[in-house]
Design brief:
The chain is α+β, with helices and mostly antiparallel strands and 391 residues long. It contains 11 helices and 13 strands. The protein folds into 2 domains: 114 residues, Nuclear Transport Factor 2, Chain: A (Roll), CATH 3.10.450; 222 residues, Neutral Protease, domain 2.
Length: 391
């Protein structure tokens, strides 16, 4: 259920929030299900402190930002509040929107913390949050936007577009690598990534496409570059993590070689009718997860499940994370993908990627390709985990 903020004076009260979080250490995907109930409570975009809100350009940017937030973010057609250049170059032109599911703009009240002009460029800092019933704040994110003039009128820009100019950039093959100045670029790993791209694209029958690859020692550095001062899930132990979008890969902790996310950039769009576990399973089979091979995840999952016979793998799609290191959709999805590839090679993997997006489709595809009924999965998967762990 998608809820968008209605700006101006509206009557809403936050009645229930249920959050299911899948945390890939510094990469976090958050599914927030928000239910709103009607009551006599006024809500609008608020401002912390604007030095001179009567200034013509300040007022223009304020109206621009409010209008953008109130626009339909599910509509990927031209948005008159965003600059044309980024809209022409990127189908999903707002790089922050997909950081949370269903969207950054899912309905949280927005509080503008500051608006600062430097050489006719306005930096906007916005907090997405609400106050809980006990009065304490719940902050989803604090993000930065840029507003500058396009043909004489202010338009919004991604912070990443300007921030990346302060990083180093090296192009190897079809990949533009962006990285902090402290990083010593590894050409060998960069070429290895290009080799990986050529192999998977050849086997899936698609044309390799150029993309941008952002890397740093810690994923929070990547988030800061993108425009985040804070996001829910920030902090904790620093471990390898990453994220893929339409034409970008963000990588923390693995340098120039993060094949899992690159698989998503190169292959996913060509197979839209697939289940989430199919894509993540094949990406883990071919590129590992969080810097560890599928075999590594299989061994620790096998040990864990031996200690927990009560876990029902006949309904494995209901499972989320084994722990902070291993997620079921990576390891079990990877195991299923492995068995399908063992049986029919790349051609059968391609069929698997076309098998449909529902849970029923996924179970049916397993039965079709492996002759394993859903009621047999618990025994089958446990047996295969043991077999693979002994290799």
């Amino acid at each position: 259920m998608h809820i968008s903020v209605q700006f101006g004076w509206i009557n809403v009260k936050l009645a229930f929030i249920k959050m299911l979080a899948t945390i890939r250490m510094k990469k976090i995907q958050i599914i927030l299900l928000l239910l709103f109930s009607i009551s006599a409570f006024a809500q609008k975009v608020t401002y912390n402190h604007i030095v001179d809100s009567t200034d013509v350009e300040t007022k223009e940017v304020m109206i621009l930002f409010e209008n953008y937030l109130a626009s339909n973010h599910q509509n990927k057609e031209k948005n008159k509040f965003w600059n044309l250049e980024e809209q022409k170059e990127h189908r999903n032109f707002d790089f922050l929107e997909s950081e949370f599911q269903p969207s950054l703009y899912m309905g949280f009240p927005v509080h503008i913390l500051s608006m600062k002009f430097i050489n006719e460029i306005c930096q906007i800092k916005a907090q997405f949050s609400y106050c809980k019933e006990d009065g304490s704040p719940y902050v989803l994110a604090i993000v930065n936007y840029v507003a500058k003039k396009e043909n004489g009128t202010f338009k919004l820009y991604n912070a990443l577009s300007s921030n990346k100019q302060n990083w180093e950039c090296t192009t190897v093959g079809i990949v533009d690598f962006y990285y902090p100045s402290y990083h010593k670029f590894n050409y060998e790993k960069a070429q290895k990534l290009n080799d990986f791209i050529n192999v998977i694209c050849k086997n899936f029958g698609v044309k390799p496409k150029p993309f941008e690859y952002y890397l740093a020692d810690d994923y929070d550095e990547i988030q800061e570059l993108k425009g985040f001062d804070y996001y829910i899930g920030m902090g904790g132990q620093s471990k390898p993590s990453g994220k893929a979008t339409d034409d970008k890969v963000y990588c923390g902790g693995l340098g120039e070689y993060y094949p899992h996310e690159v698989f998503h950039v190169q292959i996913d769009e060509h197979f839209p009718n697939k289940h989430f576990w199919v894509s993540e399973g094949i990406a883990t089979l071919l590129g590992g997860s969080r810097g560890k091979s599928l075999g590594w995840h299989i061994k620790r999952t096998n040990l864990y499940l031996q200690k927990h016979p009560e876990i029902d793998l006949n309904n494995m799609l209901k499972l989320t994370n084994l722990d902070s290191e291993t997620s079921y959709h990576y390891v079990l999805g990877g195991l299923i993908a492995m068995k399908i590839k063992d049986k029919g090679g790349w051609s059968l993997l391609k069929e698997f990627m076309l098998s449909g997006g529902t849970d029923e489709d996924y179970y049916n595809a397993i039965e079709e390709h492996l002759r394993i009924n859903k009621s047999e999965l618990n025994n089958f998967i446990r047996e295969q985990l043991q077999i693979e762990s002994e290799k």
